[in-house]
Design brief:
Length: about 775
């Protein structure tokens, strides 16, 4: 028999039960006991799904109230002083929430901790804040309580814990200025590892045999000092007497294969989807007492697995390793929706191509049974269905469009260059006549219950087209009038008609499909429903022109046209895997180029093409960066290079580490870039000490993911800090991100304060 296990399961619930409960708790509509009961019920349900799928070792500890790094950070007692945590008391759930979002039902509001992307995914984590004097202690009991819950259900459990190197690598502190790999952080290991030892001792006392230690940083470019620290930490983990499974994913650890075989650990998990070339080298390097866990079921995409190809790839490994070969998904299933059975409106052909978390566990079980020699009628029937679906997708006439292929060929002759920025900005300023420190927002305004109801009724056919358009126009006018009243300089139409910044556009593009319940967690209670790019992408009709033109007709001030950029459309979708991602991105860029040109023709003088995911798509190894950045930048410029000099192109980026790709961002040649900087206290602007950014920039002056209303003087201070690194005449004033998730009262107060801050800055110039 081949042992199967899972690295993690989606925690939000098939109907986003966790999201709804979290938001009800934060709003004061339910008590903590009700929230905790919901968490208990979800864990039980998800463990049962995995047990029924025949998974041998069930992960415990993959559940999190916000994200798994924040869970572990609070378990280690690492709480910044501003949250008032006593060193002798457990860290409460409300303290965790205040670290994540700035406030909770109890406790004094405080500035939330920084949030950023989890490796190259659209999932986010709260960045641990550390100091050289940092102390660690076991400050929460939730992991042990969850182990007891699972054991009471009769499960064979495998606790999941972020590894010490990964946790330290992701941590930040004012004293650590050399980035994630700052070796000075390793001095904290001496204090950190005893808490790991304490946790493992407690788990052993509970009868746990295997523990999964996640060290995904091993797929990055690791300095030698960190690899030496891996030896130190592995010895402490092994001294617990537990079986340690070191889990890596999202890339290759082939160059560390010999080191992994020397570590005093009992097994290694590797990602065979992202890096299939590492399978044989790692297997050859492991000791005879170490197991190799291989992930050939893709934990980050939704297409059915080619089990024939997976079986063929595993046969030699199974012959070599025997029972030492384990099977799992490539990574945690956190990144895919919960269950395909809820998709009742997808057509049968497309639905047959898909596999969500629950179905991936079925694929895993049958692959393991087949590899283990099971050859009965039930096995043959499942494999036959799988083959038919995989082959059917390959040959489907829905995938390829000749007109798209031809357009790509013709696009090779399109110039991606615009005239120099100095020439463009002069034309734009003559046309727009903006003041110093111009103010704007990132695009979206609060999506009220009335907006969502109107959109839902319209989609269900109970609200006629004319009534829906009237409702959206009324909302647009309200948003425009509000912005005029408070004195914003460049307005937006508020995006009331949009359900999501990717889904809205995908619904109007050929080659896309959509699920009803294909939700995945982005951060905390924020869930997204990524579209499916199953075929060639084409824009049949204009997507935003009518709404933007109407908004512009209401005011003499410029109104931004708002689009989502080609790289973000790619990154935030489940993308077809039968052609290079670059090709799909170029198809998206051409579709957006048509929309940009149509907006300009309709009288829109400012057009924002958001690319928050450009850093997210960056390969994890630096050697692969240039190839990706070359085509990602080209795709952005392909979508924007067809406009006149006096049409101003904006882009927006948020919640990623952009410092190390500033040259590529400059090469995008947007006239104005707006970026997230408030949570990191303008940390991103340190990049401008060494790099002369040539165009205008709007460093976000307040955190829209917190309900706290920013102080005017605090925003003025942030902008003055920005003016120390950038010419004041090239600075804009704006929030960190869109306002879709905020309520109207806090939005009104925050934007009025922001406009007041800009006025104060102008008076001082």
């Amino acid at each position: 028999m081949v042992t199967t296990h899972s690295l993690g399961f989606p925690r939000i619930g098939a109907q986003r039960e966790l999201k709804k409960a979290l938001e009800a708790y934060w709003a004061g509509d339910i008590q903590a006991t009700e929230l905790e009961q919901l968490g208990h019920d979800l864990r039980q349900r998800h463990w049962q799904i995995q047990q029924q799928a025949g998974i041998d070792l069930i992960p415990v500890g993959d559940f999190a109230w916000y994200d798994q790094i924040l869970e572990w950070t609070t378990t280690l007692g690492v709480v910044p002083a501003r949250f008032g945590q006593s060193a002798s008391l457990p860290v409460s759930l409300d303290t965790l929430f205040r670290m994540a979002r700035g406030r909770a039902p109890s406790g004094t509001p405080a500035a939330a901790c920084e949030m950023t992307k989890w490796f190259d995914t659209n999932y986010h984590y709260i960045v641990p804040e550390i100091t050289p004097e940092q102390q660690f202690r076991l400050a929460r009991e939730s992991l042990f309580e969850q182990v007891k819950e699972a054991q009471a259900q009769g499960l064979s459990v495998k606790p999941v814990i972020p590894g010490p190197l990964t946790w330290l690598w992701l941590s930040k502190g004012d004293a650590y200025t050399e980035g994630a790999g700052d070796v000075r952080k390793l001095a904290l290991l001496e204090r950190l590892l005893p808490v790991y030892a304490q946790v493992l001792e407690r788990l052993k006392a509970l009868g746990v045999e295997w523990v999964q230690i996640d060290e995904p940083v091993l797929v990055l470019d690791m300095p030698d000092a960190w690899l030496s620290a891996l030896k130190q930490s592995s010895q402490v983990l092994a001294d617990s007497g537990l079986h340690i499974l070191l889990a890596t994913y999202f890339g290759s650890v082939q160059e560390h294969a010999v080191l992994l075989g020397q570590l005093p650990i009992h097994g290694v998990h590797i990602d065979g989807v992202r890096a299939p070339q590492q399978l044989a080298p790692v297997a050859d390097a492991l000791r005879a007492d170490q197991i190799l866990s291989v992930g050939l079921i893709d934990g980050r995409n939704v297409w059915r697995t080619d089990l024939d190809a997976a079986h063929e790839r595993l046969q030699s490994l199974h012959k070599q390793l025997g029972e030492r070969l384990w099977l799992a998904p490539s990574c945690s299933l956190l990144h895919v929706p919960v269950d395909l059975s809820f998709e009742t409106e997808l057509d049968a052909e497309l639905r047959g191509w898909l596999s969500f978390a629950t179905q991936k566990l079925d694929e895993l079980r049958w692959l393991a049974l087949w590899l283990g020699g099971k050859d009965d009628e039930q096995t043959r029937q499942f494999l036959a269905q799988q083959r038919a679906a995989v082959q059917g997708r390959r040959v489907s006439a829905r995938i390829h469009r000749e007109e798209v292929r031809q357009r790509l060929l013709e696009a090779e002759s399109i110039s991606l260059d615009r005239p120099p920025f100095t020439q463009r900005i002069a034309s734009q300023q003559a046309k727009l006549k903006l003041p110093a420190y111009p103010t704007t927002t990132i695009g979206s305004f609060p999506q009220t219950s009335d907006i969502r109801k109107a959109r839902r009724d319209w989609r269900q056919g109970s609200l006629p087209d004319a009534a829906y358009e009237k409702a959206m126009r009324a909302e647009i006018e309200q948003v425009v009038r509000f912005q005029e009243d408070i004195g914003l300089d460049v307005l937006v139409h508020g995006e009331a008609e949009r359900n999501d910044m990717v889904e809205y556009f995908g619904e109007l593009l050929a080659g896309y499909a959509f699920t009803q319940n294909g939700w995945v967690q982005s951060y905390g209670s924020r869930c997204v429903k990524p579209p499916l790019i199953f075929g060639d992408v084409l824009r049949p009709v204009a997507m935003t022109v009518g709404w933007s033109a109407y908004a512009q007709s209401l005011t003499a001030k410029p109104v931004k046209g708002m689009l989502t950029g080609p790289v973000t459309m790619l990154q935030w979708s489940f993308v077809r895997d039968d052609q290079p991602r670059e090709t799909t991105c170029r198809q998206l860029a051409l579709a957006l180029r048509d929309e940009v040109n149509d907006l300009e023709a309709a009288g829109i003088s400012v057009i924002q093409i958001d690319e928050p995911a450009i850093r997210e798509g960056l390969p994890l190894r630096r050697a692969d960066w240039k190839a990706y950045l070359d085509w990602a930048v080209d795709c952005f410029r392909l979508s924007t290079s067809g406009v006149r000099d006096d049409t101003q192109i904006h882009t927006h980026m948020c919640y990623s580490e952009f410092n190390d790709i500033m040259e590529a961002i400059a090469a995008m040649d947007a006239d104005v870039i707006t970026i997230e900087t408030s949570r990191s206290n303008m940390e991103l602007l340190s990049a401008f000490e060494d790099f002369h950014y040539p165009n205008d920039i709007g460093p976000g002056v307040y955190d829209i993911h917190s309900p706290n209303v920013p102080d005017v003087e605090w925003m003025v201070g942030l902008m003055r800090k920005a003016a120390q690194r950038l010419p004041a005449e090239r600075l804009w004033v704006n929030p960190d991100c869109g306002l879709k998730t905020r309520a109207w009262p806090e939005t009104q107060a925050a934007l009025k304060a922001m406009v007041e801050a800009a006025a104060s800055l102008r008076q001082a110039t």
